[in-house]
Write a structure and sequence with these properties.
Layout: E1 6-12, H1 18-31, E2 36-42, H2 48-55, E3 59-64, H3 72-81, E4 89-92, H4 101-112, E5 118-119, E6 123-126, H5 128-135, H6 141-152, E7 156-159, E8 177-178, H7 187-196, H8 210-218, E9 221-235, H9 237-254, E10 258-268, E11 271-278, E12 284-287, E13 294-306, H10 309-321, E14 326-335
Parallel strand pairs: 1-4, 1-5, 1-6, 2-3, 2-4, 6-7, 7-8
Antiparallel strand pairs: 9-13, 9-14, 10-11, 10-13, 11-12
Bound molecules: guanosine-5'-diphosphate (GDP) and magnesium ion.
């Protein structure tokens, strides 16, 4: 490896397609002989994204219990811990409601860690369905605030899900690339640009009103749950996750709840499956769709929605009980994110060398 791993932050709102793109890019780089690792991030533990990365044999570390900006030291510790894999590239996926990454992560990285890491430009991903909703004025005000700020601090913007929205055009938003993490379209072009060193990392800084930011984040309710189910009659992961996702979707939509994303991950002896719902898309399954029936299932559920946390918890627990068998809840936290308190916050950009000068 080349000494300093390239650190690539991929931001964007909940459900934009960050994990899917990162794992697709990780595969593309691995095929070229590169060693790749991932750092995921969430307000709580039991993260579906980390499980999906591990299921795909990508070295993964998690920063849990707060966003990267509030846990900068932990982020750097996890990055350091990944050194044992000698990665050439480390992808880092911040929490989807996070803003102000440039001031709180990218500038400190340039100032304090230039010798350890080469920092790539900040990519922000946008789901075209979200852009469309924003254009029609149908976006919740708090979501719109976070979404707009994320775009404003991006070094590079990609629309995602190109397979679903091939002709998506974004008036007013300077889109650099259109990608599909699902099919791989546009991924090589995006990777070439972020690795080229042509673009400065952390070129923009936001002026953030932290009161407004905290309020917007707290409009979202968070649920992270982990459970084990032992079925009397064996079922495949597809037959556990599919109906569970449908049931939850029906219940959430029935109550008029806006779902930023819902992810269900199931691991059993025969394989793994992830089913998720985001944006306006239909539930999309990934993993071992043909995995055989099994009695023991280990589930993780992540739900982010505009709702009351306790209502969401009750609703998910009720849907889980409908799966049948004996249910053991190992973790079930529903909450609103606490006000962000970054460890560092720079008010001016820090100059940095080109990303390829390893
Ligand atoms: N059709 C399609 N769906 C996608 C694509 N990328 C992500 N998704 C789906 O969008 C949802 C959110 O994706 P994920 O990568 O988990 O988003 P994240 O929350 O930003 O990490 C999931 O249902 C994915 O399967 C894509 O390129 N095409
Ligand atoms: Mg993700």
């Amino acid at each position: 490896m080349s000494g300093r791993p390239v650190l690539i932050f991929v931001g964007g709102f909940l459900g934009a397609g960050k994990t899917t793109l990162i794992l697709r890019a990780a595969r593309a780089l691995a095929e070229r002989g590169k060693r790749v690792a991932v750092i995921t991030n969430d307000q709580d533990r039991s993260l579906v994204d980390t499980r999906v990365a591990e299921a795909q044999k990508v070295a993964a570390r998690e920063v849990a219990g707060g966003c990267f900006c509030c846990r900068f030291s932990d982020l750097m510790e996890q990055a350091e811990g990944l050194r044992e894999y000698e990665p050439d590239v480390i992808f880092a996926e911040p929490v989807g409601s996070c803003i102000d990454l440039s001031a709180t992560i990218l500038q400190p990285l340039k100032r304090f860690y230039e010798r350890e890491y080469r920092l790539a430009p900040l990519t922000v991903l946008v789901d075209p369905a979200m852009l469309e909703r924003a254009k029609r004025g149908e976006m919740d005000g708090d979501v719109e605030y976070l979404f707009g700020q994320q775009l404003a601090e991006a070094d590079l913007i990609c629309t995602t899900k190109r397979d679903l929205y091939p002709g998506a055009r974004a008036a007013k938003v300077p889109v650099d690339f259109a990608v599909s993490g699902a099919t791989g379209e546009g991924v090589d072009e995006w990777l070439a640009e972020v690795l080229s060193g042509r673009r400065m990392a952390g070129a923009r800084l936001l002026e953030v009103d932290y009161g407004r930011y905290a309020e917007a984040e707290a409009a979202l309710a968070w649920l992270n749950l982990e459970a084990a189910i032992r079925l009397a009659i064996a079922k495949s992961p597809a037959l556990v996750c599919g109906p569970l996702c449908d049931r939850l979707e029906e219940e959430l939509r029935g109550r008029g709840i806006f779902v930023a994303h819902l992810k269900i991950f199931d691991q059993c002896a025969s394989g793994w499956l992830k089913v998720s719902l985001a944006g306006d898309g239909a539930p999309r399954p990934e993993g071992d769709l043909l995995a055989e029936a099994a009695e023991e299932h280990q589930l993780a559920i992540n739900l982010r929605a505009i709702a009351e946390p306790e209502e969401m918890r009750e609703l998910v627990l009720a849907a889980l009980r409908e799966v049948g068998g004996s249910l053991e809840i190992r973790h079930a936290r529903a909450f609103r994110p606490a006000a962000p308190r970054p460890e560092h916050r720079f008010s001016a950009t820090v100059a940095s060398g080109p990303v390829t000068s390893g």
